[in-house]
Structure formats: C-alpha cells, structure tokens
Amino acid sequence: MFARVTFDTRDARRDSLMPGRLSEAANRIRAIGGVESVALTAMRPMYGFSTSEYYPDADTLAHRKPWGMYWAVSPEYFETAGMQIVAGTGFPDATGSAMPPSVIVNTAMAGALWPGENPVGRCVRFEQPRERCNTVIGVVETARWGEVIEESTPQFYLPLANMPFPAQPRTIAIRVDEAMAPAVSREVRRILLDEFPGGDPDIQRMTTVLEPKYRPWQLGATLFSLFGVLALLVAAFGVYSTVSYDVSQRTHEFGVRAALGARVADIVRSVLRDGLTTVLAGLVAGVLLTLGAGRVVASLLYGVAPRDPLALTVVAGALMVVAVSAALVPAWRASRADPLLALRNE
C-alpha cells in the first residue's frame, strides 16, 4: 500500500519539515505488526514519473540520450515494491556525504545503452554533460509505469539521500501481510494524523490502483471465455448431430454385424473411430491455422505465447474430450441395434 498526506493550503515552513516528518512516520510504521518493509519515494508507481536528460559513459553532447524516466527512492524501495535486483546491488543505507553518487537502471535501459555488456560500474551524468558521474551500482527488473501491458521503457532510479537535483519524499510505500492490511491501514492513518496535524491522509492499496487498469482486460477475457464456451457447445452439438445421422444411416449395417456375431465393443469402437476421424482432421487444421496466425493475435495475449505448446495441448485435449462425449450416445445407440429387425428388412 502507499500513504501520503495532502493539505488544503501551501505552507513553506511545513513543507520544509515534511521530509523529516515523513521519515519519522515511516520509522513508526515499521514497528506495526504485519508490516514487512517500508520505503520512501517521491512518487508512487502507476501514478507518474519525472524525466531528465542523461549522458552515459562520456561527458560530451554527442552522447546525450533522449529524456528518460526516473524515480527517487530510498534503499528499501525495491524490496517493498517486490522488484528484484538482477545484477549488482541496491542503494546502500547511508545519508548525505556517506551516500556516493549512484544510479540503478532497469534491464531495458541496460540493454539499450550497453547491449551484451555489464552495466555495473558505468557512468551516467544528468542535465549537464560535465556534472558529477553517477555510478551504475545495480540493474533492476523492468517495471510497468503506466499500463498493465506496455513496451519495456528505459528507466532509472536515484537515491533520495543523494540526488543530483532537488527531490523530496512525498509517499510512503508499505509492504504488508495481506491478512493484516485493514488493521495496518487504520494504524497508518492514525500515525499520519499524529505527525501531520490538519493533513488529509491518503492511503491506497496497490490492488485498488491497478483495478481500473485490469478491468478492460478482465472484461475482454470474460467475453472471450464466453465465446469459447459457446463455440465448444456448438462444436459438441455438431459432432453429436453428425455422428447420430451417420449411425441412423447405418442402423441396418450394425444390426447385420450384430447378427453375424459382432461384439458390442466392436460396434462402439467403429462408431467412435469414424466420428473422431473428422474431429482429428479439424483439430489438425485448427492447430496449423493457430500456428500460422500466431503473430496476428500476439498483441491480444497476456502471460501466454501465441504458440505455447501447453495451451495448444490443453485446448486440443478439451475438444477431444467433448468430441468423445458427444459420440458416445450415438455409439451406444448403434450397439443396441436389433439384429432380427435388420435381417427382416434385408
């Protein structure tokens, strides 16, 4: 969850004291039962971002890159946000002059600036090409900053304790045990009201922030699922109708075979084989079409590849189960054909 305090009016003295007050509030929140970690940040995820020019490795204008997105965070931020450091280390727990000029880049930025190389130890400057060198001390996994599904964007993180340009903490990030979330939220509100008299505490859970962004995808997934179920029912009815019609045309044949000593299992097997042959042909054609159209539907998929073998196997297996179930009734009817009636008609 994320917590911040807003005020109705601006107050220069109060605003200057806010970073210290916010740090004190964060220390008190750490002592609450159910709180796993607490961090400070200038802005919460999926809410906004800051931008800056940056100059990697060199101090000439020829190496200037487009404006990049950055976040100012405390050392505990990555643990609190559930972001994994994939190379190097996180920010040290230090303040002031004890905090060296440093930066952490995401995997997208590392791949764009230093493809195939180790970015740890590289130099990045901001705003002006001859400013201090901020050493890359770590690489963090790429996080989404605006939408649930978006292209990977170069991003970097700077330490609140030693920023190359002014930035103040405004938000407390809190990682809590799910079962304790309501109780923690109430306690956080009490602490913020105590630390910031006259303020309006704003406490939001990340699930609440993400819910509006997930909603269109959930609606689309529900509609596609309903269409899929409907298509499956139509396919089952089609298989049943086709096999039933075939059995009705071969009733005399099955009766004669039964009179000549054919076993019930043989007749059932014959009906199932003929019915499933058509289904297998349709499945093969469908799989080939899916593989061919994979690139077209790739942008509509999330969390699964368009040619994922597990997904294809599960869908094909479900269709086979439906086809077998739809063919069992006609097969059972064929096995009950009256041999005497069949011979009499012959």
What is the topology?
Blueprint: E1 2-6, H1 12-30, E2 35-41, E3 50-56, E4 65-73, H2 77-81, E5 85-88, E6 102-106, H3 107-113, E7 123-126, E8 134-140, E9 155-159, E10 171-176, H4 181-195, E11 200-204, H5 206-249, H6 251-259, H7 264-292, H8 294-297, H9 309-335, H10 339-345
Parallel strand pairs: 4-9, 6-8
Antiparallel strand pairs: 1-10, 1-11, 2-10, 3-4, 3-7, 5-8, 6-9, 7-8
Helix pairs in contact: 1-4, 5-7, 5-9, 6-10, 7-9
Describe the structure.
By secondary structure, the chain is an alpha+beta fold. It folds into two domains: 2-210, no CATH class; 217-345, no CATH class. A six-stranded mixed β-barrel has the order 3-4-9-6-8-7. The chain is built from ten helices and eleven strands.
Strand order of the largest sheet: 3-4-9-6-8-7
Spans of at least 5 consecutive residues whose pLDDT stays below 50 are none
Q: Please state the structural category.
A: alpha+beta
The tally of domains stands at: 2
Overall pLDDT metric: 80
Number of strands: 11
Total of helices? 10
From the N-terminal CA to the C-terminal CA, the straight-line distance is 80 Å
Using only C-alpha atoms, the radius of gyration works out to 32 Å
Q: What is the helix content? A: 40-55%
Please state the overall shape, judged from the principal axes of the Cα atoms.
elongated
- Percentage of residues in strands: 15-25%
> What's the helix-strand series?
EHEEEHEEHEEEEHEHHHHHH
The main β sheet shows up as: 6 strands, mixed, barrel
